[in-house]
């Protein structure tokens, strides 16, 4: 059964597919944020960590 | 088929209306008038309509009865002939500024002259469908909004309606294209003077501010501090609105406010992307379309909320908005004839 999470950036509804799994990346269709599935039941997502570069400073 | 006449069709707005209405499945364009170009093909002034429009311009004196007249005359001329137009058609859509303000006192303040037919102002429905949709469904006369006013009102209405911003503090800077000046040339439009310019042509006192206050005030005293700058662009308006939040709202609450206001609107797109190069609205991406793209950014160091909106001044700011109103007045789907999604790249 599919479930809806809430985008933590823009508060839009983010539908999760029935086979969604924790750590999977999804994208909010409203604001384009890349989101990470935290839990499926209940459906919770968070902002996916941005790729960062360490220049040794 | 609805019989439509376009009065004053040789200008840019008239050309856009002709283009849109020729493609409209429920419309037959019967006449396009022009005082100076009578007898010439409409396509002689609007070359994009070659092989699309077979009509010749006729003089306004030969205007015949129709179901609807679109009035695309220079400001001041619709007032003078309104009784004649009303006798020729049961429905009028005026694209000039002649009947935009409800309060006659606004005309000397914003246009520098008294209104000669204040008795008629109450008969017109102000032409932004997103604000007056239900009134338009039964309207016989509609007064289309100004282009800069349209972009500003649509950008700010959710905030003012919800009482979220300081009502006297909003500053709006508009960048506008050269077609806002119309099809008549002047010293200011001479190519060496206009090309490459970034010209603050109206830092204060723009006439459209009267409409903005009318539509955003909700009965309360407000101020809109508006400035306009002409930039290197043929079509388009970009308004950057600096509003100041009354409370310390976060971006999710702003999102909710705009989504509640515009989530089901067919011609408003909320544009606020987290990455990529098109993160906020841009005029060129709405060129030729009836869209108003709206985005925002919350200043993390203050309560300033920057709202950005982009339209095509000849479309959502004029002809497209008028056709949208026409659709509502006649029971057509609101989007009929307005489906062009724009071009990319352009």
Describe this structure in words.
The complex is a heterodimer of chains A (57) and B (346). By secondary structure, chain A is mainly β. Chain A contains no helices and five strands. Chain A has strands spanning 3-6, 13-16, 25-27, 34-39, 44-47. A three-stranded antiparallel beta sheet of chain A has the order 3-4-5, with no helix packed on it. A two-stranded antiparallel ribbon of chain A has the order 1-2. In chain A, a hairpin with a 6-residue loop joins strand 3 (25-27) and strand 4. Chain A is globular and about 35 Å long. Chain B has 346 residues and is α/β, with parallel strands linked by helices. In chain B, helix 5 links the parallel strand 6 (125-126) and strand 7. In chain B, strands 3-2-1-4-5-7-6 form a seven-stranded parallel beta sheet, with helices on both faces. A seven-stranded mixed beta sheet of chain B has the order 9-10-8-11-14-13-12. Helix content of chain B is 28%, strand content 21%. Chain B folds into two domains: 2-143 and 316-329, Rossmann fold, CATH 3.40.50.720; 148-311, 2-Layer Sandwich (Dihydrodipicolinate Reductase, domain 2), CATH 3.30.360.10.
């Amino acid at each position: 059964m599919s479930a809806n999470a809430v985008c933590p950036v823009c508060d839009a509804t983010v539908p999760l597919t029935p086979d969604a799994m924790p750590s999977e990346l999804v994208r909010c269709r409203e604001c384009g944020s890349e989101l990470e599935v935290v839990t499926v039941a209940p459906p919770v997502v968070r902002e996916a960590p941005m790729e960062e570069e360490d220049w040794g400073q | 088929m609805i019989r439509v006449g376009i009065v004053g069709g040789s200008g840019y707005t008239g050309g856009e209306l002709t283009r849109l209405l020729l493609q409209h499945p429920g419309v037959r364009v019967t006449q396009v008038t022009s005082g100076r170009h009578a007898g010439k093909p409409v396509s002689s002034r609007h070359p994009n309509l070659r092989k699309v429009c077979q009509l010749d311009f006729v003089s306004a004196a030969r205007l015949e009865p129709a179901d609807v007249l679109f009035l695309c005359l220079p400001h001041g001329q619709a007032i003078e002939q309104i009784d004649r137009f009303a006798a020729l058609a049961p429905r009028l859509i005026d694209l000039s500024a002649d009947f935009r303000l409800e309060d006659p006192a606004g005309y000397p303040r914003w246009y520098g002259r008294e209104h000669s037919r204040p008795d008629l102002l109450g008969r017109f429905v102000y032409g932004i469908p997103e604000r007056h949709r239900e009134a338009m469904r039964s309207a016989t006369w509609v007064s289309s909004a100004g282009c800069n006013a349209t972009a500003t009102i649509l950008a700010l209405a959710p905030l003012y309606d919800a009482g979220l911003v300081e009502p006297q503090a909003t500053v709006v800077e508009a960048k506008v294209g050269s077609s806002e000046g119309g099809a008549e040339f002047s010293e200011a439009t001479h190519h060496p003077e206009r090309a490459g310019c970034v010209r603050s042509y109206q830092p204060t006192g723009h006439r459209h501010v009267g409409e903005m206050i009318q539509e955003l005030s909700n009965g309360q005293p407000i101020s809109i501090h508006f400035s306009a700058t002409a930039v290197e662009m043929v079509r388009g308006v970009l308004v950057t609105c600096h509003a100041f939040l009354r409370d310390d709202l976060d971006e999710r609450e702003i999102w909710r406010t705009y989504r509640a206001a515009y989530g089901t609107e067919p011609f408003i797109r909320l544009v606020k992307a987290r990455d990529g190069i098109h993160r906020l609205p841009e005029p060129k991406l709405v060129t030729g379309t009836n869209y108003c793209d709206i985005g925002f950014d919350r200043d993390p160091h203050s309560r300033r909320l920057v709202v950005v909106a982009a339209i095509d001044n000849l479309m959502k700011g004029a002809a497209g908005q008028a056709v949208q109103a026409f659709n509502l007045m006649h029971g057509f789907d609101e989007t009929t004839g307005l489906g062009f999604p724009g071009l990319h790249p352009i």
